[in-house]
Amino acid sequence: MAVSIGELPPLGEVPETMFAQTVRAGRFGDPRTAFGVEQVPVPALAPGQVLVAVMAAGINYNNVWAARGIPIDVIAERQRRGEPWDFHVGGSDAAGIVYAVGAGVTGVSLGDQVVVHHGWWDQDDPWVTAGRDPMLAPSAKIWGYNTNFGSFGQFAVVQAHQCMPKAPHLTWEQAAAPTLVGTTAYRMLHGWAGHTLESGDVVLIWGGSGGLGVQAIQLVKAAGGVPVAVVSDGARGEYCLKYGAKGYLNRKEFTHWGIPPHWTDAGGQRSWSKEARRFRDALYEVVGERQAPRLVIEHPGEATIPTSVFICAPGGMVVICAGTTGYSATVDLRYQWVFQKRLQGSHGSNDEQAYAYNDLVRQGAIDPALGEVLPFADIGRAHYEMGEGIEVFGNRVALVGAPHAGLGRADEIGRTAQ
Ligand code: NAP
Questions:
Q1: Within a domain: residue 185?
Q2: Residue 142, exposed/middle/buried by CB under 10 A (0-12, 13-18, 19+)?
Q3: Residue 97 lies in a domain
Q4: Predicted model pTM
Q5: Ligand 1 pocket mutation pick from 192, 325, 392, 393 by most atoms within 8 angstroms of CB
Q6: 223 lies in which domain range?
Q7: Which residues line ligand 1 (CB under 6 A)?
Q8: Which atom of ligand 1 is found nearest the CA of 214?
Q9: What CATH number should be reported for the domain holding residue 376?
Q10: What is the pLDDT of residues 199-244, one digit of tens each?
């Protein structure tokens, strides 16, 4: 028998079924109707896996895509790999308590209070066993998006290496907020040799008040860099300042977004360049000198890539982890080769990067930037609002096992891992 949302069974007692917010193919589309609460089986653990009783679950953009069924149908993709489930339990951020461990698990024990990072890969993947970056392995996946039984159910299935100690000073909802976006931002800033963040670097951060943006701002500041945010209104800009941005640019004051006029259209190119230079001058004003960003943190994609490549310092890097506004971005190769810039894709994080990020959270150097805390029932609504760009302040979290804002009764059940 499943227990109610907001409750936990005694430690180590795993019910046969649980409540989960599922997505099914017949409901793909608007996340408000794509998600639905139902009872599903609690799956058996494979070797190396851990069952986490989810106290709180972070909301991320990847399950906006899963709910819409684009760019991929995550359920069909898994069924092609031989998995039986015809539903998707998403959710790539969790804070919770270890309730069961599979065969061969070491370093993770019953009752550990953990946060979960979203990198998933086969332990016996030859790329991984050779000691290479597992996020580049053929078997690399995003937990709670490419894999089933993420954090939008009462029990989540994770790999042991994903479990990191929860910061003791954070509530469940605070702890569940930042890991996916924070670890992604950490890899973008520190993961690409030749272009790792250095003290004094100016970093331009698109969507500064959003989940990824507010973590990037703090990480840049913590490393002695100069974070400059781009936002779409003053309130979002002020939010970025609170988390350490040197200043912000309001993208609504510029008009050159999207694919620029073709290079054979000299007049169109002139107007585009004029506006892009105006944007660059506004950035110099924020920085206080004519210093271009050595790193640009990209995710809007089609709307902004031409500007990112233009504005990036010679020899600098535009590092991108999404294409929220579209995938058909154009790059003016003249800026690329003459000024020897790098356009780098980045996805998720490996264990080393995730743990390095989590250590900063545990030390209190990075604030989780908790946004709205919502009830389990509102997970569909929260994804709809995220997809529409409504209320973009930090990271939203749904309560699952945690009964109310605060530390919750599971503190009496679990223990903080050291
Ligand atoms: P979010 O909290 O919803 O923030 C998105 C931000 O994008 C908003 O702050 C918004 O800021 C900005 N934005 C919206 N439309 C824009 C436009 N036309 N031009 C420029 N900026 C625009 O989302 P998030 O959690 O930060 O995630 C951002 C993206 O990164 C998503 O697509 C997500 O899937 C992706 N992501 C990828 C990974 C990975 O591992 N690959 C990991 C985490 C996130 P303003 O409107 O204020 O400008």
A1: no
A2: buried
A3: yes
A4: 0.95
A5: 392
A6: 192-345
A7: 60-62, 180-181, 184, 206-207, 209-213, 230-232, 236, 251, 299-300, 303-304, 321-322, 324-325, 347-348, 386, 389, 392
A8: 26
A9: 3.90.180.10
A10: 999 999 999 999 999 999 999 999 999 999 999 999 999 999 999 9
